[in-house]
Every structure is written in structure tokens, then in C-alpha cells.
Specification:
It contains eleven helices and 15 strands. The protein is of the alpha+beta class. It is globular, with a radius of gyration of 22 Å.
């Protein structure tokens, strides 16, 4: 029998005004019950899906189509690869948001509808005014806020580099989280051929194949899970794996991503891909030497790393800023173009 995940740490009745100060200190997941219960969108969703749709439509300017992901009823909401991983089990099309919303209402009573999923749609671009009508101050610099709309769905475990606050605006969600170090036990698929941009776990959480994925119970033993209703939110720290399920016939999620780092910093995934290109195929002994260099200059770097070098001669070993980061980027670009 597989182990059961434990609960995500919960903070009930948090005053939204306290959120900005707390977000800066959290490094582990938190469930925030009722955080956005004051939103008119949540009030409408608790009344009915039709009321929630009416609330969304008042902000839809209709000038741009959204990208809708659709899958056959046989997918049972799982947005994933096809059987032999030569493609995917869904298709994408550009369609008016109002049409998507009306279609979701049409299928609401169907026991086995096709999956309809509008993922990660920039809120201010497609629904201007929604954020002002449904406010939440995060106190972070330049958050990217998106809306996710659909019926029942299962999104494979994946991770994001930014911190993430996800607020349930309609329907119910089940969120299953894993610490970053569970990567070996989640059986992650390709990095550059993915359903939606991020590498995903190949395990079907609804029916895990333990012959193919025998270490998955180890991951489950470290997992944390929560079921969220309208008005609830979950904080997902950077790089925590998260498996997301929409449990009802109409679901809306509003999430914000942000990175508490200077804007000049590059994407860490670029460094990982370059390391694969430059280091992965080296002989084992040489890889061990490079591991020592990375520990010294990156993972364990501190003031002592460069203290013996005169300040004017430290180059990239000195603290980086926008100017020096730009110089490093220029050097890398020239070297990669060789």
C-alpha cells in the first residue's frame, strides 16, 4: 500500500493586509484558508457557475482570442503526452473567451465532457479591471498574474522557478506538492519536449504504474496535499513540484508568480542546459573536478571566495550588478556563437 501525503501547513483567517510581510519570509508551502473570500468573483462562484461566468464576462474586451487546450473525454482531464510520447493527447486553438465560458456552461451537467482548459492567460491583458475588482496586494515587485479557466483537469507534477501564490476563485482544487529533492522519485520527462513548457512527471497520479515507476511511493511519503475551495489560496515556493487538479465542472484559478531577485539575473534553466552541453558528457573524474569548481564559485561562494584578490581585479568574482551581468552575458553570447 502506497504511503499517503501529509497535509500542507495551514494558516486560517489570515488578514490579507498581513500577506506582503509574510510572503518575504516563507520558504515552505502554506494554505491560506479564505484569503480571497472577499472577492466578488468568489461570491459569484459560490452562487453558481453561471454567476461566475457573468462576473468574468464583464471584464472581457473581446479583442484577443485566448488559447484553449482541449482533450477528448477519454483523457479524463489529464493534459499529457500521447501513448508513445511522439506528441500530446490534446490540441490547442485560438478562440474567444466568451465562447469558452459558454461552452463550459453547456457541458457542466455532462458526466464525461471533453476537457477544456484555458491555461496561464495574462489577467490584465485579457480581463482588464478584474484585478481592481478582486484586489489582493502582494507587496512584491512586478508579479505576473494569470488566470486559469476550465472544467475537470489533471496537470502533471511540474515546477516553476518563481514563487507562486495561487488563489481559487471558482470550483475546487486538489494540490499535491513535493520538495525539490524528490526529482529522482517523480520520474520527470523531457526538458525540451513538454506539454506546456515545463518538464513534468510521467507518473499518472490517479493510477501509478509502480512497475515502471517503483520509487514513486518514496515521493508520496514526502508529499503534502490540500483540497482548496473558492476563496482559499496556496503558496508554492520556488521549485517545489506541484500536481494540480480541477475537481469541478467549472474551475477558475488566479495565480501570481514573482522572483525576489534583481531583474538582471538570468534564468537558472539556461545555466542547467549549458551545463548539460559543456559538462554532462565529460569523463567521471573530470565531472567531479567541475563539481568542486561549481561548489567553490557558485553553491558555496561567500566573501572568502575572492577575499585574497584585490577588489579592482575580481572581475566576475565581485558582486554582480546590472552592468557586470550585461558584460558576462555579452562574453557568453560571443563564446556560444563560435
Amino acid at each position: 500500500m502506497s504511503p499517503l501525503p501529509g497535509p500542507i501547513d495551514e494558516i486560517p483567517d489570515l488578514d490579507p493586509a498581513q500577506l506582503p510581510a509574510l510572503l518575504r519570509s516563507w520558504t515552505t508551502p502554506k494554505v491560506l484558508r479564505g484569503l480571497v473570500a472577499h472577492w466578488p468573483m468568489v461570491t459569484a462562484a459560490r452562487d453558481s457557475a453561471a454567476a461566475a461566468v457573468a462576473h468574468l464576462k464583464q471584464f472581457d474586451h473581446g479583442r484577443m482570442p485566448v488559447t484553449a487546450t482541449t482533450a477528448a473525454p477519454q483523457a479524463q482531464g489529464r493534459i499529457f503526452y500521447n501513448e508513445d510520447m511522439t506528441g500530446f493527447n490534446f490540441r490547442r486553438e485560438q478562440i474567444a473567451l466568451r465562447v469558452v465560458l459558454d461552452t463550459l456552461l453547456k457541458y457542466q451537467a455532462e458526466p464525461a465532457p471533453p476537457t477544456i482548459y484555458v491555461a496561464s492567460t495574462t489577467l490584465d491583458s485579457f480581463l482588464p479591471g478584474f484585478a481592481a475588482a478582486n484586489p489582493l496586494a502582494l507587496g512584491v515587485d512586478e508579479p505576473l498574474t494569470s488566470i486559469w479557466i476550465g472544467n475537470r483537469s489533471r496537470i502533471a507534477a511540474h515546477q516553476d522557478v518563481p514563487d507562486n501564490l495561487a488563489c481559487v476563485a471558482a470550483g475546487r482544487r486538489r494540490v499535491t506538492l513535493f520538495p525539490p529533492d524528490q526529482i529522482d522519485n517523480l520520474y520527470i520527462g523531457p526538458l525540451d519536449f513538454t506539454p506546456a513548457g515545463q518538464a513534468v512527471s510521467l507518473v499518472d497520479f490517479a493510477s501509478p504504474d509502480l512497475q515502471r515507476f517503483p520509487r514513486f511511493p518514496v515521493a508520496l511519503a514526502q508529499a503534502q496535499v490540500a483540497e482548496l475551495g473558492p476563496g482559499d489560496a496556496v503558496f508554492i515556493p520556488s521549485l517545489w513540484w506541484h500536481h494540480m487538479e480541477g475537481l469541478d465542472a467549472f474551475n477558475v484559478l488566479v495565480n501570481s508568480w514573482w522572483r525576489p531577485v534583481p531583474a538582471w539575473m538570468d534564468a537558472p534553466m539556461n545555466a542547467l542546459m549549458l551545463a548539460m552541453l559543456a559538462l554532462r558528457e565529460l569523463p567521471p573524474g573530470q565531472r567531479a573536478h567541475w563539481r568542486a569548481l561549481f561548489d567553490h564559485y557558485v553553491f558555496e561562494a561567500d566573501a572568502g571566495t575572492h577575499a585574497h584578490i584585490p577588489a579592482h581585479a575580481r572581475g566576475v568574482l565581485a558582486p554582480l550588478d546590472a552592468t557586470t551581468a550585461g558584460n558576462v552575458r555579452s562574453v557568453l553570447r560571443r563564446r556560444l556563437e563560435r
